[in-house]
Design brief:
With about 600 residues, the chain is an alpha+beta fold. It is built from 23 helices and 22 strands. Strand 1 (about 100-105) and strand 2 (about 105-110) form a beta hairpin.
Length: about 600
């Protein structure tokens, strides 16, 4: 009686979870894991209850209690694994402080971040987290943005620079103006994207669902066939019921329900931690099959900012000195060519002396005194105006710049040309490595730009790009993508998400690249938080790794049934090999644990 009461209590309390789940599955006309478990434990319970009421045979109360306990343990492991995988969202939420120091009438008052409004001034002390998105108004510091962009190096911040909620301030103190609050901050948008990606359906998930349904049908049919065969050969009812329960339990697609969602949850959170935001799972799945990657040039492979990209020098002149003098002369000029020279000198860490007696020479250049000497900086018109004939090496440098669609800027002193600088939209330092990685993966690299053919060809030669489409209007970019797809290629488009939106949508995989704050994420399947083209190859690697895990998990979740179902049905009974219900439950739960552990191994990859 005690065994009967305890067995009934275990079924009513522990088994009710599965019975309720089965009811939901049958209501949705999608029988699966819960249906099989509920069927197995109900068959065992009804038979044991019948024996307790006088039906001849051996009851299965111990087997029933063990079965339910093991199934609950497997279910708990599954839920724990999923919560761990989705824990990155909770970690992102923890990055935000609960309060902020708002400045009012020259004094700082601590307020909840929910009280902040756009336009407020907030003080960010050393070591503090930034509460909302904003723009630095005063102060200098270095910001740790690794939790948002995956970039490990601190990023310098000064007046005019944007700061992102959740990033950590370094040693300096900053006063920032609030530009975005609440759900509009970059961190909130990242959290939404990760959540949407984890909930989005993938082709592999659809395959797993079909496999689970098919396995359920096979299990029920195998269970019915097992009962018929053993009843026909005169086996005892208790033995027959045990075989049926073992078949139903061992074939249960419990691990199939975990195989794909867990990989999806882990891969999307891994990507988010390192600056890859997956907006559409199907886009990430397609990335492993890419044949060609199309890059927009301006702002993607280049900085969209002019820099000195080449220098030719007169005899006896040192390049650093020439650039330093030119930057000093151009210091007070607002012309784009002037800013390019100044920024190039600054980025190289050159000490720029002050320029004095600055004078604009309308239409030809500028003039200033530097360290007691008078220099002029300007284009070819400056040479003609002053009647200066540059050395042959300088003329060759200017001709090469012109052939590449670059601007030539001369530095003059006492009617002698000292140097010529080729100024152009500077190639990103990372672009060459990015293209090399794609070539290593066997992927063709294409450049798409509205720039002149000479400019595009020069960039393509420099970077080793395979195909160039130049002088393409924004509205025609999508047509070029369609041309490549018509050749049977699977194509990814990488662009800034603004005038590239039609092309991003047309491509098999749309990759929006930007600084992570104002990127047009709606156009792309994947968003690169950092403006780093090297991240494109990381998308391909993450896609391949997550697909491998999905396939492995599907085999671990369902493949063992090829042997397990006949074994549970008693096919080798006469050889003394039998799989009792509890062992079937252990085997089925073991497959769930293996699937969970295998998915977690994805975290060990470098993406």
């Amino acid at each position: 009686i005690i065994v009967t009461l305890f067995g009934t209590a275990v079924f009513a309390y522990g088994g009710w979870v599965f019975v309720r789940g089965a009811a939901r599955e049958l209501q949705a006309r999608l029988p699966g894991m819960m249906t099989l478990i509920a069927l197995a434990i109900t068959v065992a319970f009804v038979f044991s209850a019948a024996v307790a009421l006088g039906y001849p045979g051996m009851p299965l109360w111990e087997e029933l209690a063990t079965l339910i306990t093991i199934m609950l343990l497997g279910h708990w492991i599954e839920m724990r694994s999923i919560f761990q995988a989705q824990g990155a969202l909770q970690e992102l939420a923890k990055l935000l402080p609960s309060t902020a120091l708002r400045e009012v009438d020259g004094r700082a008052e601590e307020v909840p971040i929910t009280d902040l409004r756009v336009g407020d001034t907030v003080l960010v002390r050393p070591g503090a987290s930034v509460p909302v998105d904003g723009v630095v108004r005063s102060g200098e510091s270095a910001m740790n943005e690794s939790m948002i962009t995956g970039e490990s190096r601190p990023v310098g911040k000064a007046a005019g620079d944007g700061v992102i909620a959740g990033t950590v301030n370094g040693a300096g103190s900053l006063r920032m103006e609030v530009t975005r609050i609440g759900g509009e901050t970059s961190l909130a948008r990242i959290m939404r994207l990760v959540e949407q990606a984890q909930q989005s359906r993938s082709r592999a998930q659809a395959l797993a669902d079909r496999a689970a349904f098919a396995l359920t049908v096979v299990a029920v049919a195998s269970g019915a066939l097992t009962a018929i065969v053993w009843a026909a050969v005169g086996a005892k009812p208790a033995f027959t019921v045990e075989r049926v329960v073992s078949v139903l339990v061992v074939a249960c697609p419990h691990a199939l329900g975990l195989a794909i969602p867990l990989v999806i949850a882990i891969s999307t959170t891994l990507g988010a931690r390192t600056g890859l935001l997956v907006r559409d799972r199907r886009g990430l799945e397609e990335a492993r099959k890419l044949d060609a990657v199309v890059f927009d040039k301006t702002g993607t492979l280049t900085l969209a900012e002019h820099r000195v990209v080449a220098t030719r020098l007169a005899e006896g002149i040192v390049e650093e000195d020439a650039l330093r003098w030119a930057a000093a002369v151009e210091g007070d000029s607002e012309h784009p060519m002037a800013r390019a020279i100044v920024e190039s000198a600054t980025e190289r860490g050159l000490d720029i002396p002050p320029g004095e007696s600055f004078r604009a020479l309308p239409g030809i250049g500028v003039e200033a005194r530097v360290l007691g000497r008078t220099f002029q900086v300007g284009g070819p018109n400056l040479l003609r105006k002053l009647g200066v004939e540059p050395a042959a090496a300088l003329s060759e440098g200017a001709a090469e710049a012109a052939s590449r669609g670059q601007s030539a800027v001369y530095l003059l002193h006492e009617r002698r040309a000292l140097a010529v600088f080729a100024v152009a939209d500077a190639v990103r330092p990372e672009s060459r490595e990015a293209i090399g990685r794609l070539h290593d993966a066997g992927i063709e690299v294409v450049m798409l730009t509205g720039d002149a053919k000479a400019v595009a060809d020069a960039v393509a030669r420099d970077l080793g790009i395979d195909v160039v489409f130049a002088e393409v209007l924004p509205e025609d970019k999508a047509k070029k993508i369609e041309e490549l797809k018509a050749q049977g290629k699977r194509v990814a488009m990488v662009g800034d998400g603004v005038n590239d939106a039609p092309a991003l949508v047309t491509a098999d995989v749309g990759i929006a690249i930007g600084a992570g704050t104002d990127v047009a994420v709606e156009a792309g399947d994947v968003v690169l938080v950092r403006s780093d083209p090297r991240d494109v190859s990381r998308i391909v690697e993450l896609s391949k790794a997550s697909y491998r895990k999905m396939v492995q998990n599907l085999w671990w979740a369902a493949g063992y049934n090829i042997v397990a179902i006949p074994l549970a049905a008693g096919a080798l009974f006469h050889q003394g090999i039998l799989l009792p219900p509890a062992a079937a439950a252990v085997l089925m739960s073991a497959s769930t644990v293996i699937v969970a552990v295998n998915a977690q191994l994805l975290r060990r990859g470098e993406f």
